[in-house]
C-alpha cells in the first residue's frame, strides 16, 4: 500500500481503512482521516463507539498484553443474534457473555489501534513456535522476482508442522528454492525460513476469488509426499 499510493498519485488523506465482518454488521474498526501513513497501512483503525474489543490467547482463553497477537473478539450492539437456524454454530462463535470470536489473529496497541495479523486457523506451530503466515508473505513479497506468495503449514513428524511457501514468480523471471532461502537468511528469524519452497502457477480459489488455504495445504502435502 505504501508503494501503491505514490504510484497512483493518491494522497494518504484519501485513504480510509476499516475492518468488520458480516457477523458484526459490518464495521467495528475504522481509522481517522488524519492518521499517519503508518497507521493507515499497518492497522485497521480504532474501535467504534459503544463497541468493545479484546485480544485473547486462543488456546488458554486468557487476555494477552498489548501488542501481543491473539484472537480478536468483539462485543456490542453490532454483534449478530446468531446464525439462522443453527444454534450450535452460533454457540461456537458467540460466548455466553456475548463476545463474538472473529477467528482473526490481531493485536491492540496502547492507543487502541488494531493490527490484523492473519487467521487463527492458518497459524503455523513449528516445534512450539507460533508463526504467522501473513508476516512471512509480506516479507517474501519484497523479493523482486515474487509476484504472489501464500504460506501454509504442512505436517512434519518431528516438529508438528513445517513452513511451505507457495510462490508465483513474475512473468519472464526464473527463481530457485535456494535463492528464496538465501534471501531470507539474516533478515528473518531462522525458524521462520520456509523448509519448503514450491513454485506454482495458480492457487485454489472459491467462487468469489478467495484463496482456499486448506486446499492449498492439502495440495502441498500431496506434492511433497508428506
From TrEMBL:
Stored InterPro entries: AMP-bd_C, AMP-bd_C_sf, AMP-dep_synth/lig_dom, ANL_N_sf
Gene3D superfamilies (UniProt xref): 3.30.300.30, N-terminal domain of ligase-like (3.40.50.12780)
Keyword set, alphabetical order: Ligase
Domain AMP-dependent synthetase/ligase residues, every copy: 15-84
Catalytic activity: a medium-chain fatty acid + ATP + CoA = a medium-chain fatty acyl-CoA + AMP + diphosphate; octanoate + ATP + CoA = octanoyl-CoA + AMP + diphosphate
Keyword field contains Phosphoprotein: no
UniProt-listed Pfam families: AMP-binding, AMP-binding_C
Top-level taxon in the UniProt lineage: Eukaryota
Any one GO biological process: fatty acid metabolic process
GO molecular function, one term: medium-chain fatty acid-CoA ligase activity
AMP-binding enzyme C-terminal domain segment(s): 135-210
Function as written in the Swiss-Prot or TrEMBL entry: Acyl-CoA synthases catalyze the initial reaction in fatty acid metabolism, by forming a thioester with CoA. Has some preference toward medium-chain substrates. Plays a role in adipocyte differentiation.
Similarity field: Belongs to the ATP-dependent AMP-binding enzyme family.
UniProt name for this protein: Medium-chain acyl-CoA ligase ACSF2, mitochondrial
Amino acid at each position: 500500500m505504501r508503494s501503491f499510493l505514490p504510484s497512483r498519485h493518491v494522497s494518504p488523506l484519501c485513504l480510509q481503512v476499516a475492518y468488520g465482518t458480516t457477523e458484526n454488521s459490518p464495521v467495528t474498526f475504522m481509522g481517522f482521516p488524519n492518521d499517519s501513513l503508518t497507521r493507515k497501512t499497518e492497522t485497521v483503525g480504532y474501535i467504534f463507539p459503544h463497541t468493545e474489543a479484546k485480544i485473547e490467547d486462543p488456546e488458554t482463553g486468557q487476555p494477552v498484553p498489548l501488542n501481543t497477537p491473539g484472537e480478536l473478539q468483539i462485543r456490542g450492539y453490532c454483534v449478530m443474534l446468531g446464525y439462522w437456524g443453527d444454534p450450535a454454530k452460533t454457540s461456537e462463535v458467540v460466548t455466553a457473555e456475548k463476545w463474538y470470536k472473529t477467528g482473526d489473529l490481531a493485536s491492540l496497541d496502547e492507543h487502541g489501534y488494531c493490527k490484523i495479523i492473519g487467521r487463527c486457523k492458518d497459524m503455523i506451530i513449528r516445534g512450539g513456535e507460533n508463526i504467522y503466515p501473513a508476516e512471512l508473505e509480506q516479507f517474501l513479497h519484497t523479493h523482486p522476482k515474487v509476484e504472489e506468495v501464500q504460506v501454509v503449514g504442512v505436517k512434519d513428524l518431528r516438529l508438528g508442522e513445517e513452513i511451505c511457501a507457495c510462490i508465483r514468480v513474475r512473468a519472464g523471471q526464473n527463481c530457485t528454492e535456494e535463492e528464496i532461502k538465501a534471501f531470507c537468511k539474516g533478515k528473518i528469524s531462522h525458524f521462520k525460513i520456509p523448509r519448503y519452497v514450491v513454485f506454482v502457477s495458480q492457487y485454489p480459489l472459491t467462487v468469489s476469488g478467495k484463496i482456499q488455504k486448506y486446499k492449498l495445504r492439502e495440495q502441498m502435502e500431496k506434492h511433497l509426499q508428506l
